[in-house]
Amino acid sequence: MSDEDARWRKVDYEGFEIHVELLIKGHEQEPGRSSAPGDRYTYIGYVCHPGADPKLPGHAVPFHADGEDAFVSADEAEYEAVHVGRSIVDGTHPDLTVLPLVTGGV
Length: 106
Fold this sequence. Notes:
The protein is α+β, with helices and mostly antiparallel strands.
């Protein structure tokens, strides 16, 4: 497993995978950076079918925290990221959906 893969956390949900990476706010370009007291967290993520390659167009639905979102702990950021991923799968997210993954046959 690569260092990049080790940073991503995966949750299986309703036949999809939700992948999230937790980042330290203000240091998003330094994945894997050690945290320091007072650091805030943010996240990026994607939803895909099991085994799909998220690097291929149409194989994943990417999402991220709103620009102003910052969480006091990695656990809070992860909880929110998984919640957003579930809302995408459930069809309750206001802007994102897995419908193209389902209808595209990917």
